[in-house]
Amino acid sequence: MYDLLMLPQCKGNNHWVLLVASVMSRTVTIYDSLGGNNKALFDLFCQFMCQRAQIVKDGLEKFSSEFKAPPCNKQRHGNSCGVFALMVIN
Q1: Which family does this protein fall into (predicted)?
Q2: 3-state helix, strand, coil in the chain (%, to 5)
Q3: pTM assigned to the model
Q4: CA 71 to chain CA mean position, Å
Q5: β-sheet bridge partners, residue 5
Q6: SS3 per residue for 60-82
């Protein structure tokens, strides 16, 4: 039905990152233009997917126990994180 789940997430009410979950490989990648620690976001995503699996039976509750945080373009201004999160979608 779909290959990727792309979820823009707002951290701390002031910073946007992009979580990308690959349905095929069951991996999660988090793109953060500040390069912050996103383990809590990854854990929250995994918890959500497990809870979702109780309602929607499509086998998407199992993802890798680790996430990738590849290098991405770094923002130079304090208010451009949303643009950087959207640029990754391209």
Answers
A1: Belongs to the peptidase C48 family.
A2: 25, 25, 50
A3: 0.84
A4: 14
A5: 21
A6: CCCCCCCEECCCCCCCCCCCCHH
